[in-house]
Amino acid sequence: VERWGREGAATNETTDVSCSAARMRDSLRILMATPNAKLVLTGVNFSVNTATLTQSSQFILDEVAKSLKDNPDVRVEVAGHTDNTGPRALNERLSQQRADAVKQYLVDHGVAADRMETKGYAWDRPVATNKTVAGRAKNRRTELDRLN
User: Among 84, 110, 123, 136, fewest CB within 10 Å belongs to which?
Assistant: First the structure.
């Protein structure tokens, strides 16, 4: 898909994806080098009310898998978070299922399962207000928390 920038020059989504990939690789390098670091997996998303990863999430998780395989001593917790809409029990289950889905994707792509723990936090650790659409979107996230 081609878009036009302010100057009238054509830009394309490939450039956006390349920049996002570069930022993710930089963030992963920091996570791998820094004990107890955290990384929000921006762009890892799921179909509504499911633990089914969107196709666009796969590119990001491929980068994560490569980085974890390149750093075999690093252990992480895959943490699932939700906003505060819907019943508590649903959000607890959904956040855990989403963390498990990310772990399974990484295992399927060569990361040893025993290097990863999963935890669903539901809405217990918000990073933004749940009173706005934008805040709720920020709270629906998956993070990698380095354990060592």
Answer: 110
